[in-house]
Write a structure and sequence with these properties.
Layout lengths: L3 H11 L7 H7 L21 E3 L2 E13 L7 E6 L5 E7 L4 E7 L7 E4 L20 E6 L6 E7 L5 H6 L3 E7 L1 H4 L9 E9 L20 E4 L2 E2 L2 E5 L2 E8 L6 E5 L5 E6 L2 E9 L2 E3 L4 E7 L8 E6 L8 E10 L23 E9 L4 E4 L18 E8 L5 E5 L3 E7 L14 E4 L4 E7 L5 E7 L2 H5 L3 E6 L2
Parallel strand pairs: 2-5, 4-9, 10-14, 13-21, 22-24
Antiparallel strand pairs: 1-2, 2-3, 5-7, 6-8, 8-9, 10-11, 11-12, 14-19, 15-18, 15-20, 16-17, 16-19, 20-21, 22-23, 24-28, 25-27, 25-29, 26-28, 29-30
This protein binds CU-O-CU linkage and copper (II) ion (2 copies).
CU-O-CU linkage binds next to β6 and β29.
């Protein structure tokens, strides 16, 4: 019996019914699937709402699907509407969105709107589960600044697995203030959802449930392995989201050009900031403008991760300057006046460490307990939270509902994103980060936790109760 490779070769040489598209043919040889830049970037679909009584209504069904990630292979995934990543919702500031989520999976789930200013009942909390066969309506008022949010699974002890299997997608809020800036829009405003995955030979995901980092060697952008994107020689806006379980990336461009950051988790920065690299930890967002106008058609620029080796970036994707086009968009010097939060008020400290006895990640010596409230901030008051990292891992610390600004880092000068609104703030190994945080809009119970999902599940999460 000839091997698959030989068979393929024979087929190609014979040219018989071997009308295999070359991409697929290469994929079948196995090794070729590892070569970068073989597949075009895909852009997650944008859902069309049913508009009714001043609201936008959506239905999203969680179900198993076999999705194409690696060329020529099918990966069994847990999806929203059969897509990986899930479809995008585009919302307008001030216009309510209602999402009915239907669970056709075999496991209970709950979906959180990360970065959303929503009531506890629609926050998608760990035990607020939709059982298999059930459904639930989530109400999102969108009474908040334009920003790149995302929705993802938040199931108690199972967020790591459920996200790895595919349960996440983008939720973008737009507003007139931002429209007026004339930033690149439409097909020049592109989300880049960055994830890493490990695959078995048959193309299925290889997942380990563990308190340790969940890492994969394959880098995916919008659910495709190290893709390429053909661009025009003009400005583009890219919305970067790190939707990985555990991995942090330090993003940079292969030609040394800056990534001009314009927004962070909570929306626009006061002014664009050109950065030679941007570090992005799970659930953090950074929006950048890349101007390709200086490059002749034919130029290829790789977006890579230099976190492990500055000199040897690992490619995430490639931009191919493919055509000339006029550029009516602009990048203004000032984007949005941003209030700077000051210290003062209640101060709280959070010690972050691994407990060797119970093999759990803990906050202030405690594992997550759904029956315990850890802190009670007052609605609308600014507090100071101090995260002390007593471990050698990075912890991207996230608060639901609240917005943070970084006041101080023990190991670094403030980052450009620290000056904007954050819902997730990375705390480097052995470092201390001091943030100002404010909870607005709703009272009630919310979570705060490390967004390394392996840590979150085991069990680096606490509860806060916003009180009037
Ligand atoms: Cu994106 Cu509580 O999480
Ligand atoms: Cu959140
Ligand atoms: Cu952590």
């Amino acid at each position: 019996m000839p091997s698959r490779r030989e068979f393929l070769k024979m087929g190609l040489i014979a040219g018989a019914s071997a009308a295999l598209p070359i991409e697929r043919a290469l994929a079948l040889t196995g090794t070729a699937t590892r070569a970068p830049f073989q597949v075009p970037l895909r852009i997650p679909s944008v859902l069309t709402p049913r508009r009714h009584a001043g609201r936008d209504h959506y239905v999203m069904t969680m179900r198993r699907a076999r999705v194409e990630i690696l060329p020529g292979k099918r990966t069994p995934a847990w999806t929203f509407n059969g897509e990986f990543p899930g479809p995008t919702i585009k919302a307008r500031r001030g216009r309510e969105v209602v999402v009915k989520r239907v669970n056709k999976l075999h496991v209970p789930t709950t979906t959180h709107l990360h970065g959303g200013k929503v009531a506890p009942a629609s926050d998608g909390q760990p035990l607020d589960l939709i059982e298999p066969g059930g459904s639930k309506k989530y109400f999102y008022p969108n009474d908040q600044d334009a920003a790149t949010l995302w929705y993802h699974d938040h199931t108690h002890h199972r967020a790591s697995r459920n996200n790895y299997m595919g349960l996440s997608g983008l939720y973008i809020i737009e507003d007139p203030e931002e429209d007026e800036l004339n930033l690149p829009k439409g097909r020049y405003d592109i989300p880049l959802v960055i994830q890493d995955r490990a695959f078995k030979r048959d193309g299925s995901f290889r997942f380990h449930d563990d308190h340790d980092d969940v890492l994969g060697k394959r880098f995916l952008v919008n659910g495709r392995p190290t893709p390429y994107l053909r661009v025009a020689n003009r400005k583009y806006r890219f919305r970067l989201l790190n939707a990985s379980n555990s991995r942090g990336y330090t993003l940079s461009l292969s030609n040394g050009a800056p990534l001009v950051q314009i927004a962070t988790d909570g929306g626009l920065l006061a002014a664009p900031y050109p950065a030679s690299s941007i570090e992005l930890w799970p659930s953090e967002r950074a929006e950048v403008v890349i101007d390709f106008s200086a490059y002749p058609v034919g130029t290829q620029i790789v977006l890579g991760d230099i976190s492990e080796d500055m000199a040897d970036p690992k490619p995430l994707m490639r931009f191919d300057v493919a055509r000339e086009e006029a550029d009516p968009s602009s990048l203004p010097m000032l984007l949005k006046p941003t209030e700077r939060l000051m210290g003062g008020g209640t101060e709280r400290e959070f010690d972050l460490r691994f407990n060797l006895d119970n093999q759990r990640w803990e906050i202030n010596g405690k594992v997550f307990d759904p029956n315990r409230i850890d802190v009670k901030p007052r609605l609308g008051e600014t507090e100071v939270w101090i995260f002390r990292n007593s471990s050698s891992a990075t912890h991207p610390m996230h608060v639901h509902l609240g917005r943070m600004q970084v006041l101080e880092r023990s190991n670094l000068a403030l980052l450009p994103s620290d000056l904007g609104w954050k819902d997730t703030v990375r705390v480097d190994p052995s470092a201390t980060v001091k943030v100002a945080v404010r909870f607005e809009g709703f009272t009630g119970r919310y979570m705060f936790h490390c967004h390394n999902l392996a840590h979150e599940d085991h069990s680096m999460m606490g509860q806060l109760k916003v009180i009037a």
